[in-house]
Amino acid sequence: MSELRKVQFKVFRFNPSIDTSPKWKIYEVEVDRGSTVLDALLKIKEEQDPSLAVRYSCRQAICGSCGMMINGKQRLACFTRVLELNTRVVVVEPLNNYPIVRDLITDFSDLFNKEKMVKPYIIRDDTLEMLNPTGMYLQKPEELLEYLQFADCIECGLCSSACPTYSTDSLFLTPMILNKAFRFSADSRDMGLHHRLPIIDSEHGCWRCHFAVACSSVCPKGIDPAKSIQLLKRMIASASIFKLVKKKETQLVSRHHAVESVV
Amino acid sequence: MKESTKMLIHYVTGFLILVTGAIHLISNNLVSLKWIKETVWYPMSLGIFLAAVLYHSMNGLRVILVELFPGSSSGKIISTTLFIIGVVFFISGLYFLLVLFKWW
Lengths: 263, 104
Ligand code: SF4
Ligand code: SF4
Ligand code: FES
Prior knowledge:
The complex is a heterodimer. Chain A is an alpha+beta fold. Chain A folds into two domains: 5-106, Beta-grasp domain (Ubiquitin-like (UB roll), Roll); 109-247, Fumarate Reductase Iron-sulfur Protein, Chain B, domain 2 (Orthogonal Bundle), CATH 1.10.1060.10. Chain A has twelve helices and nine strands. In chain A, strand 3 (67-70) and strand 4 form a beta hairpin. The radius of gyration of chain A is 22 Å and the shape is elongated. Chain B is an all-alpha fold. Chain B contains three helices and no strands. Chain B has a single domain (3-100), classed as 3 helical TM bundles of succinate and fumarate reductases. In chain B, helix 1 crosses helix 2 and helix 2 packs antiparallel against helix 3. Chain B has helices at residues 3-29, 41-68, 72-100. Classes of the chains: A alpha+beta, B mainly alpha. Chains A and B meet through helix 11 of A and helix 1 and helix 2 of B. FE2/S2 (inorganic) cluster (FES) binds at residues 56-59, 61-66, 76, 78 of chain A.
C-alpha cells in the first residue's frame, strides 16, 4: 500500500444557469502514487461536492473526453498522475479556446462541425464496388506507415486548445481537423483529396498554421499534428499548384483470396 | 486565387527579396562590384525588389488581419483593400525608379 499525501486542488467553477461570474474553489484530497487528476476530481465529487461537473468515460486515455487545463497545460485528467505534477496546489480549469458548458466541461461542437467539412473517411470513385463489395483493398506496409502515426488521434481536442492561431481565428480548421484531413488524404485507398481541397486549401485552412508546434507538445498520443499539417501543405502544393497527383492504384483482392492468404 | 497559390508566391517573393536585396547591398558597398549599378540589370532588380517587397508585406498583413478578423466578407474586404494599396504603391514606386534612372 503506497503512502497517502494531501494535495490541494484549486478548481474552476462556473454554472451558467445560476452563476453570474466564474469562481475558484479549493478542495483538499488524499492521493497516492497511482492517483490521477481524474481520480482526485471524482473523489471530490463523491465525498465533498457532488455539484462539480467533469466529463470522462474510459479512464484510460482512449475516449478523449477528459481534457482540461492542469497547472496551465492541456492534459488528459485520466492520464496525469497527481504526484508527478510535483506541486502542492494543482490548478484545474476548462480547456482554452472552447466555450464553457459548465465547470470543467467544454463544448467541442465547432470542432465536430469542422471535422464533417473535411470528410474524415475514405472516399473512392469505384462506386459500384462500394455499393456491392466483392473484396478487400490490399495495403502494403510502407503505405500503412504513410499515415499510421496520424491515425491514433483520440479527438481529445488538446492540440486545438493549445493552438495560438485558433485562439484568434475562430474559423481556423485547427490541428485536430487538419491532422484528420491528412490521415485520410495520405491513405493509399483514398481518392478524396480533391473533395477536401476547397476546405483545407482555403483562407482559414492549413496555410494559417504558423508551425509554432504548441499542438504537438501537448498531444497525449504522440501524433505530432504540426508535422501532419506541414505534410498536408506539401500534398496540397503538389496537387493544387504543380498538378502532381500521385496516382493511387490499390489492388482489390477477393475475400476468399484474402482469407486464404491469412491462413 | 487559391490560398496555396497566394502562399507559394509569398515564399517565392521572400526568396526574391533576399536575392535582389543582396544585389542592392553588394553593388552599393563593395567597390569592386560597383559596375553592377551601371548595367541595365540593376534598375530591373530594384523593380523586382519593389514588387516582391510589396507582395510579401501586403500578403503578410492580409494573413494577420484575416486571423484577427475572421469572416468571409471581412476576408474579401481586407484582400481587396490591401491589393489596391499594393498596386498604388507599386505604380508610384515604379514611377520614381523610372525617373531616377532617366527612363521617363
Ligand atoms: S503548429 Fe500550427 S496548428 Fe499547431 S499549434 Fe502551431 S499554428 Fe496551431
Ligand atoms: S492530435 Fe493528439 S492532441 Fe490532437 S486531438 Fe488527436 S490525440 Fe488529441
Ligand atoms: S476518460 Fe477517456 S481519455 Fe480520459
